[in-house]
Specification:
Elements (H helix, E strand, L loop, with lengths): L8 H11 L3 H17 L3 E13 L2 E10 L2 E2 L6 E2 L3 E9 L8 E9 L1 E2 L2 E2 L1 E5 L1 H11 L24 H12 L8 E8 L15 H12 L3 E6 L6 H4 L1 E8 L2 E9 L5 E9 L31 E8 L15 E4 L4 E2 L3 E5 L3 E3 L6 E8 L4 E8 L6 E3 L6 E5 L5 E11 L3 E12 L3 E2 L6 E2 L11
Parallel strand pairs: 3-16, 4-17, 10-12, 19-25
Antiparallel strand pairs: 1-2, 1-5, 5-14, 6-13, 6-15, 7-8, 9-14, 10-11, 11-14, 12-13, 15-16, 18-20, 20-23, 21-24, 22-23, 24-25, 26-27
């Protein structure tokens, strides 16, 4: 029977070399292969911003610490309309033709038919929108210069920390490091069943940009960025399998870069009324990220791109930052419908009806400022409806309704009612009555 061999001529050669004991040649070959691979590989550090530090049981809101993992209600407090800060550091980037690089990331755009992350923004916008939605709450640092942003800190390798600090410190004169601003553009609409008419991705982005003057991310490096806006940009690529894809492109001889972007958390109802006050347009009640059931949603690194060819930079693997829906709070808002005035002597009570919006495990509470009246509570003051006996003394009543979500975020609205004596005198000039009393005729 003919013996069949399955190794190639090259394999046969090395088999013969091995038989002859020429191990040194094999050693040289292995060293060459390993060194060749190291030339065309780079490392990546991908982390996101947790904004609630717990120090001996005390919450420290607004101090950023960076982690590669899950943002949850033990380490973070975000609201719909805010954005999670993402930090991507590359080291040992190999040279490419024209020093052009394009890296792709994807963000989970929908889960279980509900919007999750709807578009990309920059860090500066993310910090500003946080303060706009919740002024005074201090959920995020005030601005990019705030030391609580901790740009290059926490759970980071020594080399990545060095490169991050170097990228932000280098440059000419006394200014910051080499940096470029990358404009974000090109998103198409992701329309999901249940979205309100006209509440498209492009409409949401348009209102956001009108409030925050465009969308840009920042990239820092240990060498100058060249090529202008055409070479340094962020472009929408596609929606696929529930994700929105972006290509981040830059031109630079830098061997290390820090890419700073943020993933915008989709809103259902707008946190403010009108939405133009905070630039957040919602997709409709229950259509925002806090209503996602089940596991977390993701921001994931993809790969370097090279027009369909194998990229010079090689692969870095899939790095995944996650956000639990439980870490996404809703900022409630409310309005009140009630009587503007009441005439002493009329029958009936004062009834106020509050309409809370963006509620999430809510509690309700009314407070009553009776002024000079002797009005009194009828029934409960812990439901959206309040009933008061107007009493018999004139003055102004001010009622305040407060809705609190999850024992954390609250919003209040007010309403005033004037309690007045009968303004009209009867024919004898002494008996006074209220407007519209069918049993009386007025002389004044």
């Amino acid at each position: 029977m003919k013996k069949i061999t399955n190794y190639s001529r090259t394999g046969k050669y090395w088999f013969q070399v091995l038989q002859k004991g020429n191990f040194i040649w094999i050693a040289f070959l292995l060293i060459f292969l390993i060194s060749s691979q190291s030339i065309y590989s780079q490392s990546a550090d991908f982390r996101q911003a947790a904004n609630e530090r717990n120090i001996q049981g005390n919450k420290d809101l607004g101090y950023i610490y960076w982690l590669n993992g899950i943002l949850n209600n033990n380490n973070s407090e975000y609201t719909e309309g805010m954005a999670t800060l993402q930090r991507l550091i590359f080291e040992d980037i190999p040279s490419t033709p024209g020093f052009n690089h394009t890296f792709r990331v994807k963000m989970q755009a929908q889960k279980n038919g509900v919007h999750a992350y709807d578009f990309m923004i920059g860090w500066e916008d993310a910090l500003e929108v946080s303060e706009t939605i919740l002024p005074g709450f201090g959920l995020m640092p005030e601005n990019y210069a705030d030391l609580d942003l901790n740009i290059c800190g926490d759970a980071i390798s020594a080399s990545a920390e060095t490169e991050c600090n170097t990228a932000h410190d280098l440059g000419t004169g006394t200014g910051p490091g080499y940096t470029a601003t990358l404009e974000i553009s090109g998103e198409e609409n992701l329309v999901l069943p249940g979205d309100l008419p006209g509440r498209t991705t492009q409409a949401v982005i348009a209102l956001f940009e009108s409030k925050y003057s465009g969308r840009e991310i920042q990239i820092w490096g240990n060498a100058e960025f060249t090529g202008g806006d055409s070479a340094n940009k962020v472009e929408f690529v596609k929606y696929e399998a529930g994700y929105i894809f972006y290509d981040i492109s830059w031109q630079s001889e830098a061997t290390s870069v820090v890419i700073e972007f943020a993933a915008h958390i989709a809103a259902g109802n707008s946190p403010s009324d009108p939405p133009s006050d905070d630039g957040i347009l919602g997709y409709g009640p229950g259509r925002g990220a806090s209503f996602i059931n089940g596991g977390p949603y993701h921001v994931i690194t993809d790969q370097f791109q090279n027009n369909g060819e194998t990229p010079v930079e090689g692969e870095i693997g899939s790095l995944d930052n996650q956000l639990m829906a439980g870490a996404v709070l809703l900022k409630p808002r409310c309005s009140i419908d009630g009587p503007d005035s009441f005439c002493i002597g009329d029958e009936g009570n004062l009834v106020y009806t509050a309409t809370p919006v963006n509620i999430q495990d809510p509690t309700y509470k009314w407070t009553i400022d009776k002024g000079t009246t002797n009005a009194s509570l009828v029934g409960s003051d812990e439901t959206p409806t309040l009933t008061l006996n107007p009493g018999t003394q004139e003055g102004t009543i001010k009622v305040t309704f407060t809705v609190t979500n999850n024992g954390t975020l609250s919003s209040s609205c007010e309403y005033e009612t004037i309690i007045e004596n009968p303004p009209y005198a009867g024919e004898d000039g002494t008996l006074r009555f209220c407007e519209g009393d069918p049993t009386q005729s007025s002389v004044n």
